[in-house]
Amino acid sequence: MSSLVKEVNNELIKKISLILNDFENFDKPFLNDQGDIIIRNNTLKKSKRENSILTNVFKKIIADDIKKNRV
């Protein structure tokens, strides 16, 4: 990327960050490898974490049950 493009991207991200300061549910924007600006929603992350905890509980229950059936 040329320095002009980097400068424009940085300025755009700064302006988007200023707008996002009014909203508490979003992470800081960043550029990915393809040059896309990514803005993640915090509420989605929390629900995924909660789902993974529940999934892990069921995995453990199933694993323990399989162990009992082998004995």
What is the strand arrangement across the widest sheet?
1-2
Shape call:
elongated
Number of strands: 2
Helix share, percent: 55-70%
What is the chain-wise order of helices and strands?
HEEH
Poorly predicted runs are: none
Number of helices: 2
Computed Rg: 21 Å
The overall pLDDT, averaged over residues, is: 83
Class of secondary structure makeup:
mainly alpha
User: What's the N-to-C terminus distance?
Assistant: 62 Å
Percent in strands = 5-15%
Largest sheet: 2 strands, antiparallel
Describe what this molecule looks like in 3D:
The chain is built from two helices and two strands, in the order αββα. The chain has 71 residues and is mainly alpha-helical. A two-stranded antiparallel sheet has the order 1-2. A hairpin with a 5-residue loop joins strand 1 (30-31) and strand 2. The radius of gyration is 21 Å and the shape is elongated. The mean pLDDT is 83.
